[in-house]
Amino acid sequence: MGERGEVFSSKVVKDDRTYFFNVKKNYHGDLYLNIVESRPTDTEGRYIRQSVIVYQEDLGAFIQELQKSLDYIKVNARKAPARRIREEE
Q1: Which of 11, 21, 44, 52 has the fewest other C-beta atoms within 10 Å?
Q2: Structural contact between residues 9 and 21, judged by C-beta atoms closer than 8 angstroms
Q3: Mean pLDDT for each consecutive 10-residue tract of the chain (89 residues)?
Q4: Terminal CA-CA length for the chain
């Protein structure tokens, strides 16, 4: 087990954002999903991290609602303009 309770971890890197999908185990042995978005700030070496925790007993409902949202996006999204990459200082 990882030092922060991780039993499984994966990540997606897109442009200046990194998404982490961490399965963790609490001290009772229960599993939960921790989704983290990390992106750099304007200060060198500093990052903004935002996290969502989904407990094992809530995963079914979470996935169901997530899938509804993804289906909506697939049907209704227009082609998004390319994101501008931050200019180097």
Answers
A1: 44
A2: yes
A3: 81 96 94 96 92 96 97 86 56
A4: 40
Q: What is the pLDDT of residue 89?
A: 41
d(CA 77, CA 16) in angstroms, rounded, equals 22
Q: Which pairs count as long-range contacts for 30-37, CB under 8 Å and 24+ apart, including other chains?
A: 30/55, 30/56, 31/7, 31/56, 32/56, 33/59, 33/62
- Which residue type is seen at 47? Y
Distance (Å) of CA 60 to CA 14, 79, 83:
27, 30, 33
- The residues with which 19 forms a beta bridge, in sequence order, are 12, 37
Residues facing 53 on adjacent strands: 34
CA distance 73 to 2: 35
